[in-house]
UniProtKB/TrEMBL annotation:
The lineage of its organism: Bacteria, Pseudomonadati, Pseudomonadota, Alphaproteobacteria, Rhodobacterales. One of its GO terms (biological process) is UDP-alpha-D-glucose metabolic process. It comes from Sulfitobacter alexandrii. Belongs to the UDPGP type 2 family. CDD domains: UGPase_prokaryotic. Residues 13-275 form the Nucleotidyl transferase domain. GO terms for molecular function: UTP:glucose-1-phosphate uridylyltransferase activity. It catalyses: alpha-D-glucose 1-phosphate + UTP + H(+) = UDP-alpha-D-glucose + diphosphate. PANTHER family: UTP--GLUCOSE-1-PHOSPHATE URIDYLYLTRANSFERASE. The keyword Lipid metabolism does not apply. It is an enzyme of class 2 (transferase). Pfam families: NTP_transferase (PF00483). This is UTP--glucose-1-phosphate uridylyltransferase. Its EC number is 2.7.7.9. Keywords: Nucleotidyltransferase, Transferase.
Length: 297
C-alpha cells in the first residue's frame, strides 16, 4: 500500500522571545520577509505538496495567526470597493478558505516543547504519516522542501524522515544531529539522534532542520515520552526512541535554508530575497554606494 502524507502540523504557539519587543504584539510567524509573513511560506509549501488537512497548534494569545490564515471576506470586499481588486485577489489567493480547505486550529496552552505541540494535534491527524513544518525555518527552492520529502518518503522504506543539512562543526550544539549508519543517495539512514551535542561529542555534522515526515505511530511514542531538556517533551527524543523499531533517515533537500528564528537568519533572508528582486536593485545599489563613499572618506 502506498504511503500517503495527508496532514500537515504547524507548531505556532511559541512566544518568539528572540524578537522581543516586536513579538510582544505581533506573532513571530507573522513577521515579514520583505512583504510575505513567515507562515505564508510554509502554508504555500504544504499546499504545493498536496496536503489535505492543515492543523495549526496555536496559543490563545495569538489570535492574529488565525485571522491571517483564514480568508477575510470583509477586508477583500472593502478593497474591491476602493478599486483595489488585484490586492484583494492576492489576499484571497494567500489565505485558506474553510469552504475549500480542511483547516483545524488547536491550542497549546503551556510551552511544554515541540513534542507536546505535535501531540496536541494527534486527535485531528488523518490516517497515515504526518508532516511537520516549522515556520521559523524558511527553505527556498524551486520544488518545495516538503514536496521533495514526500516524493522520497512514498518511494523509500522509511518511517520517519527528517530534513537535514550539513552544518559547520562549531554550530552542531544548536541542532539535533544524526548518527549515520549508511547513505543512499539523498537519504542518510541513522542509528542514533542527539539533541544539541557538544562539539566534540557530535556523531556527524548532518543537522536536522524544520521539516519532518513522521509515521503516525509518533503520537503513541510521544504519549509515553518523558520530559527531556528544559523539562519539555522533545520531538527529537521521541524520534530517537523509535530508532530500532522504525527506520529513520535524514533527507538532504535541495534548497537554501534560513534560520528566521534568529535575527541573523532573518536579516540574511531579507537580503537574499531582495537581491533576487529587481524592484530592490536601486536600494541595494544605493546602500553599497553609500558604504563605499564612507570607506573612502
Amino acid at each position: 500500500m502506498k504511503k500517503r502524507v495527508r496532514t500537515a502540523i504547524f507548531p505556532v504557539a511559541g512566544m518568539g522571545t528572540r524578537f522581543l519587543p516586536a513579538t510582544k504584539a505581533v506573532p513571530k510567524e507573522l513577521l515579514p520577509v520583505l512583504d510575505t509573513p513567515l507562515i505564508q511560506y510554509v502554508i504555500d509549501e504544504a499546499r504545493d505538496a498536496g496536503i489535505e488537512r492543515m492543523v495549526f497548534v496555536n496559543h490563545p494569545s495569538k489570535s492574529a495567526i488565525e485571522r491571517y490564515v483564514l480568508d477575510d471576506t470583509e477586508l477583500c470586499a472593502s478593497l474591491c470597493e476602493k478599486g483595489k481588486d488585484a490586492l484583494a485577489r492576492e489576499l484571497q489567493d494567500a489565505a485558506l478558505d474553510r469552504n475549500t480547505h480542511d483547516i483545524v486550529f488547536v491550542h497549546q496552552n503551556e510551552p511544554l516543547g515541540l513534542g507536546h505541540a505535535i501531540l496536541c494535534a494527534a486527535d485531528h491527524a488523518l490516517p497515515g504519516a504526518v508532516a511537520v513544518l516549522l515556520p521559523d525555518d524558511l527553505i527556498l527552492s524551486k520544488k518545495g522542501c516538503l514536496s521533495q520529502m514526500i516524493e522520497a518518503y512514498e518511494a523509500e522504506p522509511v518511517d520517519h524522515m527528517l530534513a537535514t543539512m550539513e552544518v559547520p562543526r562549531e554550530t552542531v550544539s544548536s541542532y539535533g544531529v544524526l548518527s549515520i549508519s549508511r547513505h543512499d543517495n539523498a537519504l542518510a539512514y541513522c542509528d542514533g539522534l542527539v539533541e544539541k551535542p557538544e562539539i566534540d561529542a557530535a556523531p556527524s555534522t548532518q543537522a536536522v532542520v524544520g521539516r519532518y515526515v513522521l509515521d503516525g505511530g509518533i503520537f503513541d511514542t510521544l504519549r509515553g515520552q518523558k520530559p527531556g531538556a528544559g523539562g519539555e517533551i522533545q520531538l527529537t527524543d521521541a524520534i530517537a526512541a523509535d530508532i530500532g523499531d522504525k527506520t529513520v533517515a535524514g533527507f538532504r533537500f535541495i534548497g537554501k535554508r534560513f534560520d528566521c528564528g534568529s535575527k541573523d537568519g532573518m536579516l540574511s533572508a531579507q537580503l537574499f530575497l531582495a537581491q533576487q528582486d529587481a524592484r530592490f536593485d536601486h536600494v541595494i545599489g544605493d546602500f553599497l554606494s553609500a558604504n563605499q563613499q564612507m570607506n573612502v572618506a
